[in-house]
């Protein structure tokens, strides 16, 4: 398959890239400042330019999404708007605009996260964004057949505990390799409208 991989330079994206490439797929990497194609998908015009540059694909995989982390009392409307643009609208547009570019029977795999179900202090914007992505996946799946859409919802990675562990007290981390398998399942499987929780 020819797969567009957004966020390929990140820790998760790099692991997804390595695994999908090893399974014989052609990976086209996408990032703001690195990758085969460089586009900012937080801007719908950037997503349009991305699809124009990429041409037809069999799957779109997202391993990127930015949200601010601040205590609730310090959050401003612009912070929630940034979370919506950075993680929700960006991925919604990948699907909406991608319908004319992804092959019939192809798929979209989006990223949400544990904070949709297990909130943390200073994580309200991320919880909001993750929940919205998951609701969107379930709704979009009933309209885009024969194309498919799923989300991967991981908890904190074992490989990120040194940097982010204190923000996720008591949450058991998971190895990146387990998270990547959820991406493989979404891309190569047959299900749609699923949220693959990796806890």
Keywords, separated by commas or semicolons:
199 residues, alpha/beta, Rossmann fold, seven-stranded parallel beta sheet, 6 helices, 40% helix, 20% strand, Short-chain dehydrogenase, oxidoreductase
Describe, in plain words, how this protein is organized in 3D.
The protein is an alpha/beta fold and 199 residues long. The chain has one domain: 3-Layer(aba) Sandwich (Rossmann fold), CATH 3.40.50.720. The chain has helices at residues 11-22, 44-54, 77-98, 124-141, 161-164, 176-188, and strands at residues 2-6, 26-31, 37-38, 57-62, 102-111, 148-154, 195-198. A seven-stranded parallel sheet has the order 3-2-1-4-5-6-7, sandwiched between helices.
List the helices and strands and how they pair.
Layout: E1 2-6, H1 11-22, E2 26-31, E3 37-38, H2 44-54, E4 57-62, H3 77-98, E5 102-111, H4 124-141, E6 148-154, H5 161-164, H6 176-188, E7 195-198
Parallel strand pairs: 1-2, 1-4, 2-3, 4-5, 5-6, 6-7
Helix pairs in contact: 1-6, 2-3, 3-4
In short:
The protein is of the alpha/beta class. The protein contains six helices and seven strands.
| Full CATH superfamily name | NAD(P)-binding Rossmann-like Domain
Q: Tell me the CATH architecture.
A: 3-Layer(aba) Sandwich
Secondary-structure-derived class: alpha/beta
Q: Please tell me what the overall shape is.
A: globular
Strand content: 15-25%
CATH class reads: Alpha Beta
Sheet with most strands: strand arrangement: 3-2-1-4-5-6-7
What CATH calls the topology is Rossmann fold
**Head-to-tail CA distance between termini:** 28 Å
Q: What is the total domain count? A: 1
Low-confidence stretches: none
Helical stretch tally: 6
> If you average the pLDDT, what whole number results?
97
InterPro entries: NAD(P)-bd_dom_sf, SDR_DHRS6-like, SDR_fam
Pfam families: adh_short_C2
Organism: Streptomyces silvensis
GO molecular function, one term: oxidoreductase activity
């Amino acid at each position: 398959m020819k797969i567009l991989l957004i966020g390929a330079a990140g820790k998760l994206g790099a692991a997804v890239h390595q695994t999908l490439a090893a399974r014989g797929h052609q990976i086209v990497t996408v990032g703001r400042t690195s990758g085969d194609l460089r586009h900012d998908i937080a801007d719908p015009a950037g997503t349009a330019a991305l699809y124009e540059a990429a041409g037809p694909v069999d799957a779109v995989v997202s391993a990127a999404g930015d949200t601010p982390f601040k205590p609730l009392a310090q959050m401003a409307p612009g912070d929630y708007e940034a979370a919506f643009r950075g993680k929700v609208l960006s991925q919604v547009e990948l699907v909406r605009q991608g319908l004319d570019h992804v092959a019939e029977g192809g798929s979209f795999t989006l990223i949400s996260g544990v904070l949709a179900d297990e909130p943390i202090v200073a994580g309200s914007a991320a919880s909001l964004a993750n929940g919205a992505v998951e609701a969107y996946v379930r709704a979009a799946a009933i309209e885009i057949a024969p194309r498919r859409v799923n989300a991967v919802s991981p908890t904190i990675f074992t490989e990120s505990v040194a940097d982010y562990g204190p923000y996720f007290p008591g949450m058991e981390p998971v190895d990146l390799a387990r998270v990547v398998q959820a991406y493989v399942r979404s891309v190569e499987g047959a299900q749609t409208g699923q949220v693959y929780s990796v806890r």
